[in-house]
Amino acid sequence: MMTSSWVRFPHPDPHYQYTWATLKRAWSRLHRGDAEPWPDDGAVVDAWIAFHAGEFHAAVEAGLRAGGAGITAANKAQAIYANYLEPAPARKLALFDEVVQRAAQQQRAQPDLANAYYWQAYALGRHAQHVSVARALAQGIGGKVKAALDRTLALEPRHADAHIVLGAYHAEIIDKIGAALGALSYGASRKASVEHFEAALQANPGSAIAQLEYANGLRLLDGRKAEPRAAALIAAAVAGTPHDAMEWLDVERARAQRAAAR
Hints:
Layout: H1 20-30, H2 42-53, H3 56-66, H4 70-84, H5 89-109, H6 114-131, H7 133-138, H8 141-155, H9 160-177, H10 179-186, H11 190-203, H12 208-222, H13 227-239, H14 245-261
Helix pairs in contact: 2-3, 2-4, 3-4, 4-5, 4-6, 5-6, 6-8, 6-9, 8-9, 9-10, 9-11, 9-12, 11-12, 12-13, 13-14
C-alpha cells in the first residue's frame, strides 16, 4: 500500500462514528449497496468502523492487518478514497491498481467471494474513466470490467453497486463508440443500462450514488432529452441524508454536479 500522506475526510461527523453495537444494528442499511455480510472477526469490524467514519487510511491499514474479510474493507476504503479525495492523478491510478491486484488475489483464494470481483471491477472502471474510456476499451479493460461484474451478480444478484457500474458501463460504451458498434463489440444497449440502474434503485432505494450515476448514464444515452429525468434524479440524490462518510461524499458530488450545471 502506498504510504505517503492521505487527504483527510473533510466532514467528520459524530453520526458516522459507529461502535460495534451500533454498526451491527445499522449494517444492513449501510451495506445494501455492496451486500457485504457482517464480519465474524472483531479486527475486521474495527476496519469497517474506521471506513464508515471516513478514516480511510486507517481502514485500509486495519483491513490489511486483519486479512481475510478485512481485505474487502481495505479495498473499499482505498477505492472510495482514490475516487473522491486523492488529488494527484498518477497516485489515484496507482491506488486503483493496488485494489485491482489485491482483489485478484482474493479471487484466487476465495473464488466465490462476490466483492472480490466487484472491487476489481470498480477499480478498473474508475481507472478507465481517468485514462479515457476509449483508451481503456482499446486495452481490453472493458471486457475485464464486465466479466468481473457478471461474476459479482452471479454470486450476489442483489448487489446494487454492481448494477450501478454495469449501468454506467453500457452507457459509456454507447456514448463513446455508438449504439450499433457498442452492441456488436460489447453487447452494450440502452435497455440494459436502464435495467441495471433500475435494479440498483430497487435493491438500494434512495441511494445517492445510484441516482447520480443513473442521471449521468441517461445524459450519455439520450442527451438533452434526458434532462428532466436526470435533473430529478440528481435533486433526489442531493436531498438524501448520509449515514456515513462515503454517503456524504456521494451527496456532495451530486451537489457539486448540480451547482456546475446551473
